[in-house]
Amino acid sequence: MLNFDFYNPTHIIFGKDRLDEIDKNTPAGAKVLITYGGGSAKKSGLIDKVKTALGKRKIFEFGGIEPNPRYETLMKAVEVVKNENIDFLLAVGGGSAIDGTKFISLASFYKGDASDLLKFGLSTIPPEVTGKAVPIGTVLTLPATGSEMNCGAVISYGHGKFSVLCALTFPRYSILDPTLTFTLPEIQVANGIIDAFVHTTEQYLTFPVDGRVQDRIAEGILQTLIEIGKTTVSEPQNYGARANHVWCATLALNGIVGAGVPQDWATHMIGHELTAMFGIDHGQTLAIILPALLEVRRDKKRAKLLQYAERVWHIDSGSEEAKIDLAIRKTREFFESLGVKTRLSQHGVGAEKIPALVEQLKAHGMTALSETGDLTPDISQKILETAM
Questions:
Q1: Which domains does the chain have, with CATH numbers?
Q2: GO cellular-component terms in the record (predicted)?
């Protein structure tokens, strides 16, 4: 097992009817800016319930954070924070609203051009860069990204999507009430299942380092998502299925699965370019890229792919190659069983677009990806070709 530090200060408040917990977990007397996305939280009455839970605190609102939160939109919220001396940010929504709020938190104290915060890539921003950040709470409405219990965010700027990681942006608390997700459209639920699944595989399908606990946790998350995936999509008010979905998504990216093991975020990095260039939903880009990446990188990932085949998919007969083939096929079939397309061609993206995608990867510095740092643009091109 590799050396690691594990730190996660987020207080999780899980279950039905927990909004009243906002009051005792938000600093008394704080000026609160509620942030949210396209308006469903407002129309459903959730924002009003959150405001009621905040009691007599002075409350401001900022809506309109996009599904892929844009820098320009978030900087408008930064102005509100500065002008109104906001003490606390409360994100109501899914990963995009929470990610955007994390960036607002950091940018509100940064003294220079806030776009500088997008230049760190997958490296963690040292806390001294901003000195401090506006504290954050969250009310989760879309289980997918795990942003409610980590310090990461992905921000859209220009023609790219940029990771922002800083320990100052761990939420102080997150309300995880599965019933708040019951009204989600089926495709968003499916996307969320896939996002959690791929977060897990990117910390699991690498190479063995004898991280036995981490492997078992990852395998448990993957098996649970496989068990409840179709149910939570087709039966939106099935509390048991949705509760497991919510908790899987949180556990997949709160740091516990990836502690002390190699990680490979190539699927996400390549997928981000598909979203930036073609507007394909994030979860659907992962469903396109992961099976293709596993095929192209099967030799590099052989030991863990065999473990995945045997432990997750219960494939215990046949040759090693046959086991790997079947595990990759079952992965693709699982995504498709959720109603998600897994081929670029099904999204109208032809092979002639691949060179431009590869050039974007180069432009964004994504030239040495994977757990071993040897996934070059040429290999990314092979993955995209295999994804056709």
A1: 11-180 (3.40.50.1970), 185-386 (1.20.1090.10)
A2: cytosol
